[in-house]
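Hi W., the FE3-S4 cluster complex you wanted:
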Amino acid sequence: MNLPNLEEARKRTLKKSLIVKNNYDFKKIVKDQKYFLKTYGCQMNEHDSEEIRKYLEILGYSKTTILEEADIVVLNTCAIRENAHDKVFGYLGRCKHLKKEKPDLIIALGGCMSQEESVTQEILNKHPYIDIVFGTHNINDLPKLIIDSKNKRQIEVLSIEGNVYEDILYSRDSNITAWVNIMYGCDKFCTYCIVPYTRGKQRSRNLSKIVEEVKDLKKEGYKEVTLLGQNVNAYGVDLNDGTNFKMLLENVAKTGIERIRFVTSHPWDFTSEVIDVIAKYDNIMPYIHLPLQSGSDRILRLMGRRYTKEEYLRLFKEIKEKIKGVSITTDIIVGFPNETIEDFNNTLDIVNTCKFDGAFTFIYSPREGTPASKIKDNISKVEKEKRLYELNDLVNKYSLENNKKLEQKQVKVLILGISEKDNNKMYGYTETMKLVNVKLNKELIGHIIDVKITCAKSFSLDGEII
Ligand code: SAH
Ligand code: SF4
Ligand code: F3S
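Structure:
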């Protein structure tokens, strides 16, 4: 349960994980009871929630989207930024209130925040109404913790990363597009980032097990898989048997599943061979999320990203040249400790050069236990906000410019469902991961259709079915 320091964490990466078959030795315990599951954070957490949901369903709980109806509330939390803490504890306040009316309500907290020792301590000391705390390495303990929580509070968070589980069952969000975990954890230790501490060392899944999972999904009718990892390009490195991401991609492509995506790509491990495989197979989508973080070499070095602005640009150019029609999005952090105006202008420069299709932008948030959090920072919050606005304006300008190029063009869209904002519309994604809305025709949900783009906006496109 301790938050390890950098050196300890690095040493731990030398140990080998066990590959274990997940064992479903539990059955229905409740009748007519409901679960409410709320997920924060990244795709990894979204996918973990699909595992959590499966366990809740096996125990007999059915889903509700109304908190007040719940007999068990599970919050799957994220720790990437400081404000996540306040959001989650704010929400827990509502749960606490509900528990006063419903004393049998079970409240469970999982995810990356549970892996922070300070959070677990805070819960132990100040939040007695939380019945269960579980971490990212023992999600599969949840059924047992729920059963045992009837008698006693269950706080069980593992500090050493868990085994590599195979044959996990999921209750998936969609029957069209599926997440597929290819690896757990991260070994990169970017100096600002908490993920290596909350998710542990990198552990890759077995290649043939991943391919088997994709084949099964295809048989079930899934049209798309997204391979998930914090650094998909480093897939296999920890297996020490020559397995790599290029081999995995090629094998997944050969299953014939219609669309393959992957997130996230760290520029450091992105090889030319991987670019060639993406270019070669039509079912590997021409879309890459390639986090930049900063355009300043000085800041990149302080962040421990291990590439320079020039190296990023070289990779960007190779991807653009080799993969026809590729779209590239990125992540950028502004206001890293002591980021100067010159550093920030270097970031704007590279955005002007790359003209990204989209970018997730963040103000740097100090995370306890990370090396960057120890740097004394002399930049004010107001200045950081100003930089974020300026960056966002630039990023949005290029998103719109890129989207405008698609007006009156024909694109292929995988229709995923009915739009939440407008029930008369359906939504889907182009091969290049652009969100498209078209008129409702329920029979087309789950199909890849030809669409003519009629109007482009910064964050979505309107189209007509051809
Ligand atoms: N593994 C991925 C990123 C996962 S976290 C990668 O390296 O590309 C998603 C994004 O959150 C990061 O790319 C980064 O831009 C942002 N992020 C991570 N830690 C942060 C912090 N302490 N403050 C602000 N943004 C952060
Ligand atoms: Fe965090 Fe860096 Fe790992 Fe991404 S690569 S999860 S930013 S440590
Ligand atoms: Fe958040 Fe954990 Fe993902 S910290 S971004 S949920 S890996």
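The two ends are 56 Å apart (CA to CA).

W.
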